[in-house]
Write a sequence for this structure.
């Protein structure tokens, strides 16, 4: 198992290795100085006030993991050219995502983790109007 991002990348075959090095550099260019990098869920991950973004190579594509279940829904026009799921963008092994898109995603994730951006609130229970029972 990989202990560091460098170890992970060293084992990724080309052309995906070069693609992920480019993604890593794009992320590094906008994360706060306090952000850390490591392996989480067996993939390279940046952390800042919690998980920020991750990236990985697979046999037929690379992925950027936004670590957010709501962010991509707010960026539909930006990601319409890519295969996406709730929090993942897939892109070709030999063609990284555009730097402007990666930077936009990372900046939005930093704001989310700082509590400055709020996605849709999950449905919750309404407060009870009756007083709590006596013990």
């Amino acid at each position: 198992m990989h202990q560091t991002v460098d170890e992970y990348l060293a084992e990724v075959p080309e052309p995906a290795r070069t693609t992920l090095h480019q993604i890593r550099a794009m992320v590094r260019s906008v994360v706060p100085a306090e952000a850390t990098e490591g392996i989480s869920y067996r993939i390279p991950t940046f952390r800042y006030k919690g998980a920020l973004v991750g990236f990985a190579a697979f046999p037929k594509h690379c992925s950027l993991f936004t670590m957010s279940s709501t962010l991509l829904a707010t960026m539909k026009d930006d990601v319409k050219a890519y295969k996406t799921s709730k929090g993942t963008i897939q892109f070709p092994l030999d063609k990284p995502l555009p730097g402007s898109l990666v930077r936009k995603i990372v900046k939005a994730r930093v704001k989310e983790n700082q509590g400055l951006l709020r996605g849709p609130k999950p449905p919750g229970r309404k407060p009870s109007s009756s007083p709590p029972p006596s013990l």
